[in-house]
Structures
1.
Amino acid sequence: MTIKGIKIYNYLIISILNKLPNINKQKKDFLVKIFVLFLSIKGRINFLQLSRYGNYKEQRYRQQFEKTFNFLEFNKDLVLSTKGSKYTIAFDPRSYIYKSGKSTPGVGYFWSGVAGHSKWGLEMAGIAAIDLENHTAHHLEAVQTFTINNKDTTLVDWYANIITTRKDALREISFK
C-alpha cells in the first residue's frame, strides 16, 4: 500500500508531535506510522488490520493503544497550523455506535436518532473546530459517554463537564 506524498504527512505529524511534551522517540515513531495507516487503510480499522498493513504485530498495537495520548492537544496544534483565522467550537453530544456484547466498557442503552429509540451500544460526544472563513470543520476529540450510576449527576452535567475540563485548549482555538 502506497500513499502519494507520504513525506508531507510525515513532516506535518512530526512537527506537531515535537511541540507536545512527554513524547519520546519510540512513541513518536509509532504515532507517525499509526496516523499514516489510518489514512491508508480502507474500511474498518482494527488491530488485526493494523498488523496486516503495518510494521508491528497485533499485540504491540494493543499495548500502545492502552497508553494515553492527548488527541485534543495534537488536533489543536494541527488546526492552528492551517490557514483559517476564525474558529468556533462545535459540540455534538450524541453519536450512537452499534456494539453487541456485554464486556465492552461503557456499553449500555443510548438514544439512536436514526432508529428513533434507545438501542444497545456505545455513545460518544464529538468536539470540533469550525473554520468560519473556509466553511470546514476539524475534528478535535471524541469522548465516550459512560452510563451514569450516580443519581445526582445527569447526562447534561456529564456533557458540561466535558466542555469545562477542556476549556483552556478550546479557548486557544476560538479566541485566536
2.
Amino acid sequence: MAIAEEQLTGTKKSLVDAAATLIAERGFDAVTVREITGKADTNIASVKYHFGSKEELIDAVVANFVSPVNMGRLARIDKLEEAGDFCAEDLLRAFLEPMLSQIKGSPLSEKLFCQLMGRVIGERPYEFPEQVMGQFREVAARYVPAFIKAEPGLTEEDVFWRIHFSFGVMSNMLTNGELLKKVASGKVGEEQLEKTLSRVIDFCAAGFKQGGTKR
C-alpha cells in the first residue's frame, strides 16, 4: 500500500482544522484566509509560512480527510482479494464504508464532516492536489479490475463511469439529506448514517449489475 498520510501537528493542524470547519459550513470560495487564521487563533502570515497560499492550505485539508479514506479502501480490497470471492456489493462496501469510518473518527461533527466530504466530491473549484490524484489512481487500479471480475459483462469504461456515478450519489447523500427531509414532509426521518449508506450501496449495486454499454 503506497499511500502515505501526513501527520499534522501544532499550528499547521490548527489551520487545517479551522479551514475544514469553515469550508464545511460555507463552501470553498466563501471562506477567507483572515477567517481561517482567526478561528485557528494565529496570524495571516502563518498560512504563507506553513502552506504557501490559501489554495495549498485547501489542498492540505482535502488530503488530510481523503487520504485515510483511500488507505481504508486499499486495506479493504486487500482483504476481499485475499478471501477470493466477492460481488459488486462487497466492492461498493469496501469502497464507500471507509468514508463512514473517517466520519466517526473525525474531530468534526457528523453533520459538518458530511458537508465537507460532499463539497470535496461535488463542488471543489480547484484541481485535486497530485498527492490525492495519485491515491485515486492507485485505488482505481485495484477496484476497476475487481469490479470487472465481479461483473464480467462490464468494460473498464463502464466501471469508471459507474464509480463516477456512485461518487455523485454519495455526494448528494452527504450534502442534501436535510433537503430530502423537507421535500418528503415528514415521510423521511432521522436515521443512522450506516443505514443511509446501506441505501446508497443497494442503489449503486443495482446499477453495477445492469449489462454493459450497448455498442
3.
Amino acid sequence: MRTLLVILTLSSQLIWAALEFESKLVEVHTAADAQKATIDFKFSNIGEEPVFISHIDPDCDCLTIQAAGGTTLPDKRIRYRPGESGTIRSTFKIGNNKGQIDQKVLVWLTGDPKDKPSIQLHARIHVPEVITMTPRSLKWDLDSKPLRQSIEVVMHHRQAIHVTETNSTNANFQLELEPIENGKRYLIWVTPKSTERPGIAVIEVNTDSPVKNQKTQQVFAMVQRPKAE
C-alpha cells in the first residue's frame, strides 16, 4: 500500500512538472482610474504525456478566470498535449481597491485531492494611490487624556485635489481640517470628547478627486481598553 502511495505521489509530481509556466507570479500596473486588470499566466506542456486541467478557481469573487489553448473535453476538463501551450487569463475587478493587491489562482489537475491543487498562481496588481492618509487608524486608551491626534492627507496627482468635507460616524470624535498646502496636503485633527467608554468611528474624507473610485477615503478612530501586557 505504501509503495502504491509513493507511485501515485511521484506520478502527480511528474504531471505537475510537465506544465511549465513563464512565471507563477505575474505583476501588472494599472492606471489609477482603471476598472479592471488582466493578468495572463502563460504555460506549455513540456512533458511526453497529455496533461488535464480539471478546474481552476480564484480565491476571490473579484476574479474571473478563462483558460485558452488545449482542447475542452465533454466533461469540461482541458487537455494539453505534449508541446501545446496555453494561457490562464485572470481578470480582476478593481472597484475601490488601491495600492498592492495580491490574489491567488488555484489550478487542479486530474487526480488532485479536492483540498490540494497541484498549482498555485499569484496575481499582483498595483493600482496607484491618488490620495494617501496616514495613519489609517487613531487610538486612545480608555480613561486616558483625550488629546487630539492628526491624520495626514497627501494628494499624489498632477492636478490639485481638495478636501471638500469630513464626517465622523460617532459624535464623540470631533474633527478639524487644517490645510497645509491647499490641494496637496492637509491635516485632519481628531479629538475625542471623552475616553470614559469604548467607541469607534469611521472618519470619512470627501474630495474633488477626478479619479471617481478614490474620491472618498476612510480611516478609523477608536477608544479602547488598554492591551494587557
